[in-house]
Design a protein that fits this description.
Low-confidence stretches: none
CATH topology of the largest domain: TIM Barrel
Bound molecules: ligand LLP
CATH superfamily of the largest domain: Alanine racemase
CATH architecture of the largest domain: Alpha-Beta Barrel
CATH class of the largest domain: Alpha Beta
Distance between the termini: 49 Å
Number of helices: 12
Shape: globular
Largest sheet: 9 strands, mixed
Structural class: alpha/beta
Number of strands: 21
Radius of gyration: 23 Å
Oligomer: single chain
Length: 431
């Protein structure tokens, strides 16, 4: 099995975190999102421990909550002493409502409105990760109005190509995010930030992309950013105490993917940071990392009921399920690969090659192609693995389909973190 928390029980059912997925589906209904809380907590600890031992003092992980944003996850992040990255006041509001301290939140995004900035400051946001001059001016003005000095990091683009999927590659020069080092615009932004009375510049941020297995692109980015830091110190006398290297470490989705050790990657990045700071005669900045996917993706699984199969002679076979792009748009958007398992018939011979199709009224609504299953019959359960990141958070009500519930699994119990949407919920905002 691809993950350690998966097994098959005597009934031939898939178990997840020790629980029979068929029993859970009976209790909570389908589609059903399951999250193994132990995996989430262990991953937070892996990041925290590795960063505490291999990176400069003050270094810490911030959970990039765009991967999965719901009240319970922010409670877990507070308990695990993680910071969080939020990208909207909706995420910030959810965090604050869950009791997460706003001073440990970093507010990202390339397009914040005055209302966003005001709301975040009123909540006592710790840092803004500021994208451009217009935003700096707006932050400075609001901070002056509230009589504070607001801490900011500046979002920079080091121009690293991590050889990942084009659509999720955010670190290149031609990009809507941040200011490029290469063009001199990053330096201009720093100089401008330093001139603003109600802005306290704390350092720099970059994010080179997502689903990156290798540590080398992170090392390249760290060196570029440290050289920039040294350059600014030499030319303008400002030595940034914080360097945020963003998120992006990968998660294996199928057996074809490589494996990854976050602790080893962090150790390698730490070694290079030490060497580079020594070479540049630089005091080591505290390092922040922003893992999203690698905190929650492989903690998640979605369970669906099969509604039927279709064989089109000379073409292909379909197995349709009672969910799809409304709860997981990632195959439709990115042709993202997933492992699909026949949760209720794990011991049966898998000899039916098929496309797993969703229920939306759109031919592109597929969950996966070329999946080998025991020929499904209506009522079978299918499990799609690794759905903890960018599934629930990207889910929609397209076709007026209610969102599934999110059920957390712990060694002792299982419980609802988010209940299933009802038909009445769908009318919540309709007047
Ligand atoms: N920090 C920043 C500034 C980011 O933009 C992102 C992701 C992260 C951290 C977290 O990256 P992670 O560790 O999760 O790779 N919807 C896409 C992923 C978009 C990622 C956008 N930024 C997907 O489903 O693959």
């Amino acid at each position: 099995m691809i993950y350690k928390n998966l097994a098959v029980n005597a009934a031939g059912h898939l178990t997840f975190a020790g629980y029979d997925t068929v029993t859970l589906a009976e209790e909570y209904g389908t589609p059903l999102m399951l999250m193994d809380e132990t995996v989430i907590r262990n991953r937070c600890r892996e990041y925290r421990n590795a960063m505490a031992s291999c990176l400069p003092e003050g270094s810490m992980p911030l959970y990039a909550s765009k991967a999965l944003s719901l009240k319970r996850i922010y409670e877990i992040m507070r308990e695990e002493q993680m910071g969080v990255d939020v990208v909207s006041i909706g995420e910030l509001y959810t965090a604050v409502q869950a009791g997460f301290p706003a001073e440990n939140a970093y507010f990202h995004g390339n397009s914040k409105t005055d209302a966003d900035i005001r709301f975040a400051m009123e909540q006592g946001i710790g840092h803004f990760v500021c994208d451009n001059v217009d935003e700096l001016n707006a932050i400075n003005a609001e901070a002056a109005r509230q009589g504070i000095r607001q801490k900011v990091l500046l979002r920079l683009t080091p121009g690293i190509d991590p050889h990942t999927h084009e659509k999720i590659n955010t670190g290149r020069i031609d990009c809507k995010f941040g200011a490029a080092i290469e063009t001199g615009q990053a330096e201009e932004l720093v100089v401008y930030a330093l001139s603003l009375p109600n802005v306290e510049l704390r350092g720099y941020h970059c994010h080179i992309g997502s689903q990156i297995f290798d540590h080398a692109p992170f090392c390249d980015a760290a060196v570029m950013m440290l050289e920039f830091l040294a350059d600014i110190k030499a030319r303008h006398g400002f030595s940034a105490p914080v360097l945020n290297l963003g998120g992006g470490m990968a998660v294996p989705y199928t057996n074809r993917d490589g494996s990854i050790s976050y602790a080893v990657n962090i150790r390698n990045i730490g070694k290079l940071i030490d060497e580079t700071c020594t070479r540049l005669g630089l005091e080591k900045p505290a390092i922040l990392l922003e893992p999203g996917r690698s905190i929650v993706a492989d903690a998640g699984m979605t369970v669906y009921h099969v509604t039927g199969t279709k064989e089109i002679p000379g073409f292909k076979n379909y197995a349709a399920v009672n969910g799809g792009m409304a709860d997981n748009p990632r195959y439709t958007l990115y042709q993202a690969e997933y492992t699909v398992l026949p949760a209720s018939r794990m011991e049966d011979k898998a000899d039916f090659l098929c496309t797993v199709a969703g229920s939306c009224c759109e031919s592109g609504d597929l969950l996966q192609e070329d999946v080998l299953l025991p020929k499904p019959v209506r009522g079978d359960l299918l499990a799609v693995l690794t759905t903890g990141a960018y599934n629930y958070s990207m889910a929609s009500n397209y076709n007026r389909i209610p969102r599934p519930p999110v059920v957390m699994l712990t060694p002792e119990t299982h419980y609802l973190a988010v209940r299933r949407e009802t038909l009445q919920d769908l009318l919540h905002c309709d007047l």
